[in-house]
Amino acid sequence: MRNNINGDFSIIENISELKPGAFININWNKKKLMLPYSLRKDYISFTDKKWDWRYQLNKEGSPNINNPSLYEILPSGEIKTHFCELGDIR
Q: Is 58 contained in some domain?
């Protein structure tokens, strides 16, 4: 994850440091995705309206960073869930 502050793409060490303009780079299944941060009420989302990477919030309101979800939004509107395992985050 990176914040984009005036073109300075700083790496985020803690998810609580997210700012509007942030984005995430995901290498998955021979695809390279760069998804912008999207403000949501019940989860943290990075989406380009074709792909949606989410961190659910727990009861305390903190993100569950160890169990993200990747959703593929198909042209028909159907949502396909891809189960994820975190790899090297750097």
A: yes
